[in-house]
Amino acid sequence: MNFRVLFSKPIYFLFIFLWPILLLPKPVQFFILIFISVWQFLSLKKSRVTILFEKDFVFAAFITIGVVHFVSIIINVLIENFTFERILAAINVSSMWIISALFYKNYKHADIDKKLLAKICLVNLVVLYLLAILFFCLTLFDVPEFYLFNRPLYGIEYANGGLKYRFIGFMEYSNLIVTFTMINTYFALFACKKNTYKIALVILGFLPIFLEKSRFGILAYLILIFMLYFLGIEYKRERIYFLLLGAPMIIVLAMSMIDINLIINYRPGSNRDRFDIYYYSIKSVVDGNIFNMFMGKGVKAYHTYYPMGSHSTYLGFFYKMGITGIVNAIFLVISCLKYILSKRNYVGVVFLSVLFVFFALEDMDGANWLLCVIAAFVAIAGQQNEENKKRLLEYEKIERRDYCE
Length: 405
Known about the structure:
The protein is mainly alpha-helical. The protein has one domain (about 5-405). It is built from 20 helices and 6 strands. The relative contact order is 0.13.
């Protein structure tokens, strides 16, 4: 890896500096991500006017969400009283959708060496795995806490009738580990020449997610693994490798599923808080005025310890932007999946589909860096690599043959 060349190309900066960025406070992240996105845009070789104004539904979806949310914020601030902190938080989120749209354009039109990107993401995963090992060692000796830049490596919570350790990995909140692992794993697969290595890499990604103890995250990753299994493994020998490497994980899962109620009620406090947020978020919008129904509340007010409209991307869209938000959410999901599917990148479609399912119970825009990385993921997954080109040509040949017949 040529580091001199690497650091001279800003298109890779989002992933090279991903760990330093996510360790920074949210306001600092905001300005650094703006700086990187603008630098990337100015470094593009194509006409910038053409790039911005070309027909692009994914770009339109990101921009529309940011603009509609900002309009909702302005009108709601004029109608209701919110704390300055909550208004700034709402403006931060709406602005990040616009910034993410620019990241999407940058990565869509940049010449990206996917093998180089794969190595960068592989390093990101190695750091995460080392932190997971450190977490295991520290908790084995009952070390109560470990912090870096005021961020915890792990936390302690009440679960399954007792106190349990939960891996956080110095991130803003623990469930970011799920999305971090999925996206970096997808790009790291480009560095694997053999399918056996790809299988090992995907299954290894289960480790930090399992230690993070997100029940829906574990379920989402298992769905991802088995969808990839049926999609991409063609040979009997590789199926055997998959089962051998996945056997420990399958055994743990099977043991856990002896009592389904144990899984559902693993963290009863979390269940109660989550459904309270859902109930009062919907009630707040429905009980509001006609504007709230169509354009939402704009700014997230607090319910107990959590902001309303959180813990679900799609509920958050409804809370922030009302019925318009739900329409925007549908537009976003369809446009992103359709764009990647049009390039016949079925592995990319599988990863993004699982992420969109996961976001039903988690926030897509909960962290600034996450939204930008997702935008980059959609853009890069939609680029035609050689494998996708071959698949597209084969599809076109079949279509022409059927037409001639």
